[in-house]
Amino acid sequence: MTPTPVQCINCTRFSLRGHTGMASQGYGQCALAAGAGHFESAVFQRHCADFEAVAADVAERRRQWLDAKQKTFHEAIERSKAP
Ligand code: SF4
């Protein structure tokens, strides 16, 4: 039975590889969604009957990659505030 709610970051149908800029902001693409411009939040809590869990190590690597991108992004913002 599908756990609910779920996060796309934990799903086999989710990918962060299609668009690096969007992925670095936490958005990826679902294989079931139509259109190249359609993005899903990696971590939004959703109810999805098509969810299929990835292996725990895959989910962890995705989270680590996203965390690193977010850290870099926030550091760049802080640097831009410096006088
Ligand atoms: S199938 Fe559902 S949970 Fe999986 S990536 Fe698509 S929208 Fe997200």
Strand fraction band? 5-15%
Helical element count? 2
Number of strands: 3
Order of helices and strands: EHEEH
What is the number of domains? 1
Q: Keyphrases for this structure?
A:
83 residues, alpha+beta, 2 helices, elongated, binds iron/sulfur cluster
Task: Report on this structure.
The chain has helices at residues 20-24, 56-81; strands spanning 14-15, 27-30, 40-41. The protein has one domain. With 83 residues, the chain is an alpha+beta fold. A three-stranded antiparallel β-sheet has the order 1-2-3. The protein is built from two helices and three strands. It is 37% helix and 10% strand. Iron/sulfur cluster binds at residues 6, 8, 11, 13-14, 30, 32, 40, 48, 50-51. Iron/sulfur cluster binds next to loops.
Helices and strands in order:
Blueprint: E1 14-15, H1 20-24, E2 27-30, E3 40-41, H2 56-81
The structure holds iron/sulfur cluster.
Iron/sulfur cluster (SF4) binds next to loops.
